[in-house]
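Two quick folds needed for the group meeting slides. Do the first one here.
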Amino acid sequence: MEQYLLNEMHKELDLIQGCVNRMASNSFHIKGWAIGLISSLNSNSSVFVIIRIESKY
């Protein structure tokens, strides 16, 4: 009986560990995409500002 409970606890902990690993992986990928997106928006916005300033004159 005790061995059965230990096996069930082990299975439960494996499930929890799998969820935590997936969340960590997703967080890493989202942060990578966010950095790329923000960088591209920043570079594009500075180009738009330069074009707008040049078009005024």
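Then this one, please, same format:
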Amino acid sequence: MRECRGRQAGRGSMAHSGFSGSLTSPKFDLAVNMGHPFLNRTVDGFLKIGAIGACKVAADETFNYLHRGLTSATA
């Protein structure tokens, strides 16, 4: 039998496939200048938390809407 990289061909050899990639989150930098570094960080934090909360509510409402099965034909 013909050997392939130290293994016998046709016996115990499996096809190998792979996937390589990377996932990065979108970056959104907003410069807030309220005149004091602590106040700047506080306002920036509230804006980020508000954006995350709005995205969560939108995702929850979309899931509930789709889960109930309401479409324009049944509404």
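Slide caption for protein two: Strands lie at 3-4, 7-8.
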